[in-house]
Amino acid sequence: MGSNHSSQARIIGIFLTTFAVLVAAVPLWATAVPLGTFGRTYAIREKDAVQEMQERASKIDLEKEFKKRVNENTVKNFKPNNLVSLPRASQDRRFTVDPTWTLDHDIPRVDENGNTVGILYPKGYTFNPLDYMRFNSTYVVFDASDRNQLEWFKKSPYATDLRAKILLSGGNFYDTSKALKKPAFYLTDDIVKRMGFKRVPSIAYQKGRYIEIQEVNVLKNKRG
Known about the structure:
A hairpin with a 5-residue loop joins β3 and β4. The N and C termini lie far apart (58 Å). The protein has one domain (2-27, 82-223): 3-Layer(aba) Sandwich (Glutaredoxin). Helices cover 34% and strands 21% of the residues. By secondary structure, the chain is an alpha+beta fold. The longest helix is centred in the first third of the chain and has 19 residues, at 2-20. The radius of gyration is 25 Å and the shape is flat.
């Protein structure tokens, strides 16, 4: 019985990984910026103070600082190879997606010693993870390089909704996170396959055993 539960949990775990969108949970917008100079400033006249500053400067590891900057730029400009760019929605519409999986391979039954003792779930077995779990987040997908879509998001209720998760089909995640003061992640092909996104912007949420997706025509809404 324990093996059955373990294997079933494994399947559910794969599904949950899709929704997790694993990215370091660091507030990317919390970057220090120069704030200017306040009050009076005075020239350094003491010889000892100047000498001390020169000595400290000589101890800075320039190579280390350079590598640090390179790493920061690498993170800021990161884009996954499986990023999916979706076309802009030309009309408002809603549709539902059935997330039921059909296994394309057998899942073996394993005993307490790790030995295969038969087939637990055969190839062709169907499985709807939403029968076993719920996700309370709302997923908002848009192209941040499209000014109209970015402005639409800023004015939408999702901009201040803590449960809303941003998935980008275009644009830079670092710049978007900083501008919106909200973590942004990339839309990858595995998420598209599981969730059924077709156009952007899209809003997705769970509705019973299905995923409901709403597409928004931002140009129509802008004119209206």
